[in-house]
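Expect chain and fold; thus:
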Amino acid sequence: MTSGSGDLFSLAERKLDWLEDRQRVLARNVANANTPNFEPSDERPFEAALSGFMVAPVRTNAMHLGGTDNAFGTIKVPGHERSPDGNRVSVEDELTKVAETDNQQRLVTNIYSKYMAMFSTALGKG
């Protein structure tokens, strides 16, 4: 992954890397749905990966919720009831997250493709 220079290409690359990592974590959660005492995890919010970019989430109103300063990586997901074997994975929730991640990957890829098409047009190659 390239260091953050603030351009759209680096931002798209970083988002796709984050989404790839999230898919891996979610797949591990689903694969361990029957493992006793398994605790599901998820990637930290993408906003943590935006350090070094000119684009950053901004709290524009005191009534808005503030962001988190978590480091990039995985976090444990609390809140699900334990099954009798101690497992906390909700397959339905995990598959919903997988679908959301897939939609985000498509969105980022489409934006990247459109941006590249505009670049080509501006250079007279499109």
